């Protein structure tokens, strides 16, 4: 079996994907047209030409603009369904999907419109494609903690459909500690918690995510490598990092995939996983992330299998389900 055949054959879980970041230009045009919303592009080539980023913020500006065309429940359904079809093609059998309610509610779209559309697609993914999923509601960290509290309040009627809360958007200048109280409240209510930390931000932000927010997983976390004590802590706690290689390359977190630290982190015993983050913007879904690092870093078959196994170890699924998928992985030669 070639490396790419192995990657294709392995069952995988995706734990770091923003549903708004799966918005392919073709679907964006179709939804813009049916909703009568103008977009600042004439055609698909113009869209793709605009996707040149030099840091996180330059991406976020374009990402939030793209989300503006999403208005109806059907739009959120179509967005998520298109993503699930990509999962099926990549043998992603379980996915934990971020959505950013504030990106939509701040434009006057009801919370119910967003979550009902996404949930209907999750239900169909289970019944038609056999893909299980969870939703993770992410707070936008460039907005206030008060706004995050208001969003948490809006989510309460849907709590059974939301496994965790997260923290995303512009990292620098918005440390995890800014959201200490709202995360404490979310934990008290029974939500699991995750946070983007150590993508562009320093190791101190990863410490805060661990010690102040008390996260169950760190999203990105690649800058943790700069702090030896933090590395020891992540390893001792078996703290998952949801790493997104193509994202890191496109947002200039790394300059060259051959320099990406995911293999070093793996070798040191950090529980790293491979994820797509915003695949419509960064050039590929889960398997493209795997194949790109496998080639650039010369990953061994065992390392590739370990990364797939880590995705289930790190998922918010039952011990029985973890065991089942780990056995499936072990059975692949
Ligand atoms: N990579 C990323 N970092 C922070 N916020 C995001 N929102 C969508 N993608 C993101
Ligand atoms: Zn992300």
Structure description:
With 333 residues, the chain is α/β, with parallel strands linked by helices. It has a single domain, classed as Metal-dependent hydrolases (TIM Barrel). It contains 17 helices and eight strands. The protein has helices spanning 3-9, 25-35, 44-50, 56-67, 73-90, 101-105, 111-129, 145-155, 180-189, 203-211, 228-236, 245-250, 262-268, 279-282, 286-297, 301-313, 319-330; strands spanning 12-18, 92-99, 132-140, 162-168, 192-197, 217-220, 240-243, 271-274. An eight-stranded parallel sheet has the order 1-2-3-4-5-6-7-8. The protein is globular, with a radius of gyration of 19 Å. It binds adenine and zinc ion (ZN). Residues 18, 21, 56, 63, 168-169, 196, 199, 247, 277-278 line the site of adenine (ADE).
């Amino acid at each position: 079996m070639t490396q790419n055949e192995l990657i294709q054959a392995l069952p995988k879980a995706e734990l770091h994907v923003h549903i708004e970041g799966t918005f392919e230009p073709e679907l964006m045009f179709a939804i813009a047209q049916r909703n009568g919303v103008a977009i600042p592009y004439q055609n698909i080539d113009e869209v793709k030409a605009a996707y040149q980023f030099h840091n996180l913020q330059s991406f976020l500006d374009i990402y939030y603009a793209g989300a503006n065309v999403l208005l109806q429940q059907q739009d959120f359904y179509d967005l998520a369904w298109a993503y699930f079809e990509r999962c099926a093609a990549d043998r992603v059998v379980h996915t934990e999907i971020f959505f950013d309610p504030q990106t939509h509610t701040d434009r006057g779209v009801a919370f119910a419109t967003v979550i009902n559309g996404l949930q209907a697609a999750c239900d169909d993914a289970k019944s038609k494609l056999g893909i299980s999923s969870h939703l993770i509601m992410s707070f936008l960290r460039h907005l206030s903690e008060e706004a995050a509290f208001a969003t948490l309040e809006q989510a309460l009627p849907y709590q059974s459909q939301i496994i965790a809360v997260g923290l995303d958007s512009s990292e620098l200048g918005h440390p995890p500690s800014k959201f200490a109280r709202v995360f404490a409240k979310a934990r008290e209510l029974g939500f699991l918690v995750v946070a983007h930390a150590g993508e562009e931000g320093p190791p101190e932000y990863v410490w805060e995510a661990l010690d102040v927010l008390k996260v169950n997983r760190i999203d990105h976390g690649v800058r943790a490598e700069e702090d030896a004590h933090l590395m020891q802590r992540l390893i001792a706690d078996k703290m998952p990092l949801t790493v997104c290689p193509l994202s890191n390359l496109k947002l200039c977190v790394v300059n060259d995939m051959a320099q990406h630290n995911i293999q070093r982190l793996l070798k040191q015993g950090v529980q790293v996983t491979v994820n797509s983050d915003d695949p419509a913007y960064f050039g590929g879904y889960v398997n493209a992330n795997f194949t790109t690092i496998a080639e650039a870093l010369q990953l061994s078959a065992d390392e590739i299998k370990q990364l797939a196994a880590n995705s289930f170890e790190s998922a918010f699924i039952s011990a029985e389900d973890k065991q089942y998928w780990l056995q499936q992985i072990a059975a692949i030669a």
